[in-house]
Amino acid sequence: MILRPDGIIVAIDGPSGAGKSTIARLLAEQLGYIQIDTGAMYRAAALLLSRADIDLGDLGAVEQFCMTIDIRLELVSGKQVVRANGIDVTDWIRTPEMSLLTSRTSTLKPVRDALLKAQQQMGGRGGVVLEGRDIGTVVFPDAEMKFYLSASVEERARRRCEELTAKGESVTLGETIADVVKRDRQDSERDIAPLRQAVDAILIDSSRLSIDEVLTDMIAMCRNKIKTLGSSS
Ligand code: DC
Fold first, then answer.
1. 130-170 pLDDT per residue, tens
2. If DSSP codes are grouped into helix, strand and coil, which group holds residue 69?
3. What is the whole-number distance in angstroms between the Cα of residue 112 and the centre of ligand 1?
4. What pLDDT does residue 232 have?
5. Dihedral (Cα; 62, 47, 160, 172), 10-degree rounding
6. For a pocket test of ligand 1, which of 12, 41, 42 has the largest count of ligand atoms closer than 8 A to its C-beta?
7. Which atom of ligand 1 is nearest to the CA of 16?
8. CA 63, CA 67: separation in Å to the nearest integer?
């Protein structure tokens, strides 16, 4: 039985560059669900912390500051817009520097506590596809559908490098591999909510699969789950 008013919760976790964002967007579109990119929320929080010049070693100051932040995800003409304290920060949060800073600020308890609460509020009614690192383990351990999307380090770095080059950033594959390895380590070795596959998550390795192949399987599994839960209500 689906107990949530707007549908099921689909959790997609996995390391950076595994294709979560694209897959989550397309999956949400197909299901008529809302996409919640929790990585974008962590990035926006990191940007606000750095702009306000908050000392990341002073957890009291970080906590105080986190009480004042308001991060929203909006869909404008089919494009996701990230708003941090009212300002559109969509284009500022995707640089390699912000990626590394976010990997650091997302280890801080006050940051995680603030965003955890916001994410639970945003997704609690169901009808959502959430992507991140700890959705199936911490944010919604009771999500009806959980996926863990992964790919080899080389493949993820290759995709990231292509993405950044297309945006006009000058990066080499070697630098990108080093970044991916560093972020993987920071994300999976942190004390709070580390990147981990939930025991009941379905593992998908996208290294040799196209987006279409991955998506087709995931949509079928979600529809099947919705149907099964719907018919048992
Ligand atoms: O998915 P992304 O690359 O945009 O995520 C940016 C950073 O935020 C990444 O280093 C891990 C962190 N993050 C997290 O700790 N928990 C989440 N649920 C989502 C992202």
1. 999 999 999 999 999 999 999 999 999 998 899 889 988 88
2. coil
3. 11
4. 61
5. -100
6. 42
7. 3
8. 6
Phi, psi of 222 (to 5 degrees): -65, -45
Q: What single-letter amino acid sits at 21?
A: S
Measured by CA distance, the residue closest to atom 10 of ligand 1 is 103
- Which residues, judged by CB distance below 6 Å to any ligand atom, belong to the binding site of ligand 1? 16, 38-40, 42-43, 102-103, 106, 132-134, 183, 187
Binned at pLDDT 50, 70 and 90, residue 230 comes out as: confident
Residue 113 is part of which domain span?
Answer: 9-219
| Chain segment 51-94, per-residue pLDDT in tens | 999 999 999 999 999 999 999 999 888 889 999 999 999 999 98
CATH of residue 42's domain is 3.40.50.300
The number of distinct structural domains making up the chain is: 1
